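We modelled each protein-ligand pair independently. The example shown here corresponds to the pyridoxal-5'-phosphate entry; the chain sequence is given first, followed by the ligand as SMILES.
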Amino acid sequence: FKSAGKRFRDFKIITLFFFFLSIRSLNMTVALKLLIYMDYNATTPMEPEVIQIISEALHEAWGNPSSNYITGVTAKAIIHQSRQSVARMVGGKAEDIVFTSGGTEANNLVLHTAVEHFRKSRGAEEHGEGHQNGRAGLPHIITSDVEHDSIRLTAKHLQAAGKADVTCVPVSKVTARVEVEDIVAAVRPNTCLVSVMLANNETGVVMPIPEICQRVKSLNKQHERLRILLHTDAAQALGKVPVDVQELGVDYLTIVGHKFYAPRTGALYVNGPGTTTPLYPMLFGGGQERNFRPGTENTPMIAGLGKAAELVTANLSSYQSHMLIIKAYLEERLQDVFRDKIRFNSHYPGSDVLPNTCNVSILGPALQGWRVLSNCRRLLASVGAACHSASGHRPSHILLSCGVPTEVAANALRLSVGRGTTKEDVDAVVEDLRETVELLEQMN
Ligand SMILES: Cc1ncc(COP(=O)(O)O)c(C=O)c1O
């Protein structure tokens, strides 16, 4: 009888535990529904079709793609199809795609390759295979002062280690773009790489990559000149604006899955890797990715990347026009509510901006971006690049480089909309901001 009582008590405890657990997860679901995500430049959720294909690959294509029996062959076929889809998205050929873990690795691979390219071409000269043109010293890399940390810090590291000289060309304080003439003026005899992002992650400003490539290619035609390699990091542009490697004229282009509703994986486009364009591996191993990036392939994630690329190829214009409409509505509503109390940090004369990116400051002494966001009830956004969120409450160096005054940059909010953002979401976010600003002003 005693043990029956104990069993009943245990049953009650377990029932209560599950009851509280379900209430908690219900609250969580309700809370998540109330929240509005406007940080699509930080990352995007995966599309249902992408999740579906990943799940199928996990079930059916778990074999090692290098194996010759059925599970391996299936996996290899999936990887091949995905390579074609990713290539089609950027206007390249399947053999030009090298899968990587993500954008950081792809960017590192380009800088590493440039240094090796310089070293090898100098070695060839020293062995009498080329012309002597005084190319002693370090390889020289040109980039901009608004690049993602995976370029900026890699370049800085190469410089600190005495492996390269680096010029960070400042963006124009009028257009927030890297100007072509400034890139050309920075070229030296040892310049082996120009790496400029296609669109900035904080301002959304689109850089003049075709013009830069055209000018640098004409320099490359000069007799005895070391070939300057051309790279763009297209992480923020893919899935938002058309991206075509032929039109851009680049040798390398970085592809980052999690910015276009794919999983956390990526690729590097290389125009004829190892033949037309040098590519030197950072890793050595089992020969996968033609030895450019060995390591057993992550088939499910590669499958997801391919599916997300197919969606971009098929639907880009509707994604783009939806985001443009929503962003225009957001800016209009912000203007209506805050009038002369706001400044857009993503509006620059003569510059194109991504269709989804609105960088805005609400002016006032107590309205720093971090303070506003931490008091908002529904809005999920950021003050700048997610990878800088640990840098305290300092204003974004990118906005300062673009000529935004310090006190305005300190109040910046980066609102980036996505494929599914609605006008109702915008109304709710603007109302949330209005209430938050009112509260913070009363508290001040
Ligand atoms: C412009 C840019 N480049 C590169 C990256 C890095 O990509 P990943 O997160 O895949 O390493 C990001 C991601 O935040 C980015 O915004």
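The chain has a mean pLDDT of 92.
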